[in-house]
Amino acid sequence: MTTTKAEAFKVLFISGIGGDTRRYRCIHQQEQLALKGVPTSLREDDDPQLLTDVFDYDVFILHRVPFSPLVGLIIELAHAQGKPVIFDTDDLVFDPELYAHIGLVDTLPPEVARRFRADLARLEETFQHCDCVLTTTEFLAEEARRRGKPAYVNRNAPNAEMFRISEQAWAERQRRLEESNAARPVVIGYFSGTASHNRDFQTITEPLVWVMSTYPWVWLHIGGYLELSPAFEPLRSRIRRTPYMTWRELPHVIAQADINLVPLETDNPFCQAKSEIKFVEAALVGVPTVASRAEAYEYAIAHGRNGLLVNSPDEWREALQMLLDHPQRRREMGEAARRTVYARYTPERRAEELWATLSDIRQQYGGPPANKNELWHIFIAGVERYASEIQQQIREQEEQIKGLRQAMRSYEAGLMRAEQRIADLEQTIEAIMQGRVMRLLTSLQRLWRRAAGRNIQG
């Protein structure tokens, strides 16, 4: 079903971050809306084109956009036209107080970590200026509501191309399973999307080491970024690692595993906010998941039917032991998970819910526009502020360039002095060596004369 003319609206996605989060929260949602006949576009959060886009679109979805003068102006102009502005996020990034709970911080250099913390404060400012929040889990939605924002959920879901690629990977997996014998290794897989999951994986070190020590035919496949504990060192011959890979490659790699792991720090609110996408990606290729009991995984997994939910080292050990001891149960659980994804996470299913959500948001937060004079006053004043900010940034950058040039000149002068000192040192060394050679020759001559004298006397 597509939208009628009376229902028609255009959506602009504005993104402040790239990678898989933009793919799921912007590109996939654009594709969902396209199934409903809703026109969309995607812009970077610093694109001046936004100053004209703000008059051409009806709904604005700000995907993890830090506040800036331009972003503030776009929000002000949208509101002046009675158009809703939505803050979209798949992580708990609108509360800077949770900075210490974010595992990614552990991997960042101090200066980058400082900027990341500043960006969290700017994300919170954008969050406060928006009408409502669109997010991936009920846990995140509730956190937004606790901070005074109405919140809606549109869960992360694969797009049509991911389904197509995963179909191919699933078919290849089925052929391998039919052809394999009982003696082949069983592969437990962990596929980390970013470098932020070291803390999560540490929670299952003890049960996983126990499992691999107890079952010598079990291999561990680590995909992406992860620092393994030294406890795994005795098992390194059965640990396979692959680098971070593109989303088009990932289904074929996951399909090589027999069990998918999703450990999380369940006492960490940042981790509790994570979506169930790792379950979905594995389920697409028929691989069963053992996951920590976070809200999103409790939503997706019916424990014992299409996956397993655990909450302690003992439960991890028991869950893995059960799947290793019962290979047919593994296959049945993986296929049940796959049916879950096809029932609840297809683009068509998500399209219906997203379109209904945005239609409701338009009714709730849309309103009559300001008169043209007021609107142009806001626009002109805002553009002047934005232009002033750009000029200030240019001046700061020019000062930085000036400082870099001065530093380069000082470096070059220092390099020339260093080169002269090296040349002087080389001359000194050469003179010393020449002196030593001369003294050696003189000594040899004296020895020769003495020897010659003895021969004459003899």
Outline the structure in words.
- The chain has helices spanning 19-35, 50-56, 69-80, 110-129, 138-146, 160-179, 198-202, 205-214, 250-254, 269-272, 277-283, 295-300, 313-325, 327-344, 347-365, 372-457, and strands at 11-15, 40-44, 59-63, 85-89, 132-135, 151-153, 186-191, 218-223, 239-242, 259-262, 289-292, 308-310.
- The protein has 458 residues and is α/β, with parallel strands linked by helices.
- It has three domains: 11-157 and 349-369, Glycogen Phosphorylase B (Rossmann fold, 3-Layer(aba) Sandwich), CATH 3.40.50; 161-345, Rossmann fold, CATH 3.40.50; 370-428.
- α3 (69-80) links the parallel β3 (59-63) and β4 (85-89).
- α1 (19-35) crosses α15, α3 packs antiparallel against α16 (372-457) and α8 runs parallel beside α13.
- The mean pLDDT is 89.
SSE order and pairing:
Elements: E1 11-15, H1 19-35, E2 40-44, H2 50-56, E3 59-63, H3 69-80, E4 85-89, H4 110-129, E5 132-135, H5 138-146, E6 151-153, H6 160-179, E7 186-191, H7 198-202, H8 205-214, E8 218-223, E9 239-242, H9 250-254, E10 259-262, H10 269-272, H11 277-283, E11 289-292, H12 295-300, E12 308-310, H13 313-325, H14 327-344, H15 347-365, H16 372-457
Parallel strand pairs: 1-2, 1-3, 3-4, 4-5, 5-6, 7-8, 7-10, 8-9, 10-11, 11-12
Helix pairs in contact: 1-15, 2-3, 3-16, 8-13, 11-14
